[in-house]
Amino acid sequence: MIRKRFLDWYASFIFEHRVPVLLGTVVLTLLAGAACLRLQLHTSREALGDADTPATRAYRAFIEEFGTPNQLLVVVGPRDPSQPPDPSRYEGFVDALAARLNLEKAFFADVYYRLDLAAFESNALHFLPLEDLRRLVEAVSEPGSPLGRLQEIGSLADANRMLAEQIRAGVSRGEPTSAEPAAELRQLLPALEWEGRFLEDPAAAVAELDPRRLAGSLAAGRGVNADGYLVSHDAMHYFLVARPNSATSDLDFINPMIRRVREHIVDVEEQYPDLRGGITGLPAMIQEEMAAVRRDTLFTTSLAVIGIALLSLLAFHRRRLAPLVLTALVMGVTWAGALIAITIGYLNLITSSFAAILVGLGIDFGVHIVSQYEIETAGGRDCQRAIGAAIRKVGPGLLASTFTTATAFFSITLLDFPGFAQLGFVGGWGIVLCLLATFTALPAMLAIEGARRGCSGRIDSRLSRGDRVSQAILRFPRATLLLGLAVTVGLALEAGKVGFDDNIRNLLPPQAESLQLQETVLRDSELSPDFLMVIVRDPDELERLQARAAEMPHIARTESILTYLPADAAEREPLLRRLRRALSGPGPRHRRFDGQALAAALGELRDALAEVEELAFAEGRTELLAASGEVLGTVEALTARLRAATPPDEAAWRDGEALLFRKADDIWRRAKDLTRAAPPTPEDLPGALRSRLISPNGAYLLYFYPFGNIAEPGAVQDFIRDARTVSPEVTGYPILVEDGTEEITSGFSRVILVGTLLTALALLIDFRQPLYALGAGLCTAIGICWMLGLMGLSGIQFSLANLPTVPLVLGAGVAYGIHVLHRYREERAQGLATVLHHTGRAILISALTTMIGFGSMSFASHRGVSSLGKILLFGIGSCFVCATVLLPCALDLINRRRGSAS
Amino acid sequence: MRRLAPILLLTALACLAAGADASRALLFWAPYGAGSPEQAAETMQAFGRYLEGAAGWPEETMATSYLNNVEDGEARLRSDAPGFLVVPVPVFLRYGAEQGWKPLLALVTDTADAQRYTLYGPADSTMESMAGAPLAGDTAYDAAFVATAVLGRESAALPYELEPTSRPLSAVRRAMRGEKVLVLLDEAQRQALAALPSGGAELTLLAESPWMPAGIVVASPAAAEADVEAVTRAMRGAAGDPAAAEILTTMKIRRFEPVDPEALASLGRSYRAARTGDGQPAG
């Protein structure tokens, strides 16, 4: 009663002082607008949270010691994958790009794309994996093996004859019918092709055999080719790692940095049109995500504004009232902006969407007031009485729904995660200010507009149509409720499928370049971005931790300076001794070039291969048949070249073979030296490797890498648990994300619980009758159940981007039930159809505006934003249907029962 | 004690001899097949060990061997006929009735689900134009089979000269060069033609046999009924048994499956009719 008297007095006051009130709100809006100009946009992720956990402290310590781990990765691949260019083209591309990026000192601390293998030359055998060294020693020591018989080779003819013998021996042992003979046979091709080049230009072919490269290729491990370039496993992609100068994720730094890199890539691509460069790594992902969000924001906001404006024009009987509603809304949003400017001072990545949220929710206030105002004027009331009646009738509902929505928002401030907590503050106060602006400026504007142009209205066909719809809804209340129950049960079962997707990469548009290249990197290289790391001061501790990590089932591999300093000298030494003994002889000694002997040896090789071909054909082994045919073709080409020899050719081959054996002698001596080399020390390693793994202060870094893609369910948790077992001080981006996700998800559970309790309390206070509060609450609960069921049906999961939808739907969705129940209390005597007719239209318009506002986001390319839009669409739509269909039917049934009882 | 030693030795030898009972022997016999008995020995032994285990027999009770020529196979049938054999269809037709073999299972190889024999000639050749030419291939060792199964004739007499060889590719090359030679290829070899640089485009397909099993597992009258059941069960289960997976892969066998007795009988009838008509024993 007091509330009604107050609202009556308030309406009269506004009407009588309409001009000063409107002027006051305009002045306030201008001042607020000026304050909004001070508002800043903080685009860094650091602005979202300042958690002080052991992992974040370790992360900061890592950055202090080694710089940012968030590297930019340039992936160079073929433009046409079916025709990958020559390795020298790739190498030219990355050399040129690295030279350019090295000059970008404002952005990059260093650029790493090639390991200097010269550093491995003198002790390459110590870097060779122990198993490979063991195999090498076995091969060299085995009597009769090609490597063991190297010293017997005195000419190219000898080498070919030896190959023929090997193949024949394999055939007689039945080897071509077992194992993988096709691949083994193809291994002969490089040697035979080299022989072909020798027959064309002996000196150039011999020059190819660089002993330093041979040493380097021994040392080159997975991920690095024989020239030291970072390559994928299939050598189809080359990589360049650029380490930014700053660890910030601020777009003011990242955007120009990536723009610059892209410009360089385009320039280099002009020189190498057969290759294409792409960017990935965390900075690239952040940049692409933000670009997608900006694009989407522009697109979806335009969509929302156009949709809401059209709806406003169509929804109101008097279209000239639509701009008044929108003006009041703009005032409210501006006041909210001013409040943020004064209190927080900036918007972050999450609160930057506050205006869109307030527009979606805040327009409801104006819609309700104007809808009721139109009904009142159509009923013959004058302006003052129509405004008073509108405020009195919709006011309580609006106040209550604002209270519940603001409560839902304020409950988000309970989160420890500042990014979301600020959204709660901004949303809560924003909705209150929108209500305030609509309650003051809109009645004043309606009064002025009514005084100028009259406020008489008429009931048009749309109102009577609304009547028919209301009656239709209430025609079969029992059947409708049963249908609602069935839908609820069905969707509740689907709701079980909804989980939480903690993979933040799934938020990006699927076609994002950085995401696709990330997949390539994860699948085909050793450069997994999902590493963890720990700083270790003591080398013994480093050794202990690395050994411990090797025992962990979910750590695929580790990397530290020790990875490159073999700790197995004791096992290696006897192997090196055996190798030394095997190489103790004088090495291959050149006899003399003999063209006829070479032709005969090639003939033997051809016959041996023909034997393999026969076997392969007889057994239908197409792969082996193709391989033997390929090798046979190469041998036949050599034979043909030999047959076409001229006397100058013969002389060149003679000189070339002598040169070859001098080179072989050099290689033999170097190989002997390698067997005598002392184990390497950190100083022997390439500088780029040292600086990655040892800080200037002498601290060691130990990296942990997971098996494959840690986006698989549970994989990241297993990986982190194992790494923390090795060292509790481990840190890295996967831990920061996991900890942050854990904090946010557990916080949101708290938020939803508190929000629900506060909403329930607000309903009790508002209605002062538990049954009404229960009705509004139950209606919202069913709506949320439907929302979850629709999510399950559409395969949408909760994620970091769409978590705020739950409190939002709770706050906004409950409003529909509140409006229906308030109006029911007011107009119960006139029948439920009238109640529904009067309030249903306003609820429909406000639900549609909200759904258009939020639903427009479902068209976003950013999967996080898109899922946010879809969930809100489902939630608001479901709450609307529950409030306008199920709730009236339930009330109707209760009424009938009471009627029959009385 | 010293006197006992020779007795003990003789007893041990007798036990070993009993263990190597021919009725439980398994012979893979593929005339002109790839590899040699020596190369196959290890795999044969492994397969024998697997069958023993699966059949629940004591170790080393099943002697398994491989033969790839006609003479050795015939000699083995005469001297020490094994209880079980795995043979290609031509061998089954030639010796099956004579030896009283009972077909147990069909063999499916890893190259094709079933076997088919195809006769190729040089470009633009016909069966008539090739009269008197050699007919080469690793299955070209039985005129009645080639005549009935491949050429669909009623008589075993062939106007071609059979030239069995374990080097079918050489014959294929000769035909590709235009030499007057016919080549009889099995299904795997027919598929392998595609891996040749020309894809076998220079050849003309002249005739092909109906589909038949790549091999037949048979039991000879020497095999005990219980052993037949045990071996059949063991072989049927081999494809699904991880213990046999590697052995089957090495032997290029995908699985053993029930044999279609009607199809075999039909082939056998025309084969025997052709041989009888030519005055040869029906076998």
What's the overall average pLDDT of chain B, rounded? 86
Q: Give the distance, in angstroms, between the N- and C-terminal Cα atoms of chain A.
A: 27 Å
The class by helix and strand makeup of chain B works out as: alpha/beta
Helix coverage percent of residues of chain A?
Answer: 55-70%
Q: For the report, how would you describe the main beta sheet of chain B?
A: 6 strands, mixed
Order of helices and strands of chain B: HEHEHEHEEEHEHEHEEHHEH
Briefly say what this structure is:
The complex is a heterodimer of chains A (902) and B (283). In chain A, the strands form three sheets. In chain A, strands 3-4-2-5 form a four-stranded antiparallel beta sheet, with helices on both faces.
Can you give a write-up of this model?
The complex is a heterodimer of chains A (902) and B (283). Chain A has 902 residues and is mostly helical. Helices cover 68% and strands 5% of the residues of chain A. Chain A contains 32 helices and nine strands. In chain A, the strands form three sheets. In chain A, strands 3-4-2-5 form a four-stranded antiparallel β-sheet, sandwiched between helices. A three-stranded antiparallel β-sheet of chain A has the order 7-9-8. With 283 residues, chain B is an alpha/beta fold. Helix content of chain B is 43%, strand content 19%. Chain B has a six-stranded mixed β-sheet with strand order 2-1-3-10-4-11. Chain B has a five-stranded mixed β-sheet with strand order 7-6-8-5-9. Classes of the chains: A mainly alpha (902), B alpha/beta (283).
